[in-house]
Amino acid sequence: MWNTISSILKTKSMSVFELSKLTGYAQTGAIYRLKNGDIKKPSFEMMERIADALSVSMDVFRGGEKND
User: Fold this and answer.
1) pTM score
2) How far is CA 10 from the centre of its chain?
3) Calpha distance 66→26 (Å, rounded)
4) Ramachandran region of residue 2, left (φ > 0), alpha (ψ -120 to 50) or beta?
């Protein structure tokens, strides 16, 4: 899943820090834990926040990547 997020970040010239701020989390740790693989199955709420912050549909995160 992070590969998809990373690809979108690159396309939008956005940093992980910027994404963290746009998701509305008080601290950036949640997004960095997802990036580092500490969060294997993010909550629906987290993915919804990320999709909203990136202005993409949640469908972008479905299927596809099995090694994330």
Assistant:
1) 0.84
2) 12
3) 30
4) alpha
Find tokens 């740790």 and name the residue.
29
Round the average pLDDT of the chain to a whole number and report it.
Answer: 88
Tell me if 4 sits within 8 A of 64, measured CB to CB.
yes
Place of tokens 């509305």: 24
Q: Which two tokens stand for residue 50?
A: 């990320």
Rounded to whole angstroms, the Cα distance separating 61 from 57 reads 8
The end-to-end CA distance of the chain, in Å, is 5
* Residue found by looking up tokens 């970040």 in the block: 9
The amino acid present at 2, given as its one-letter code, is W
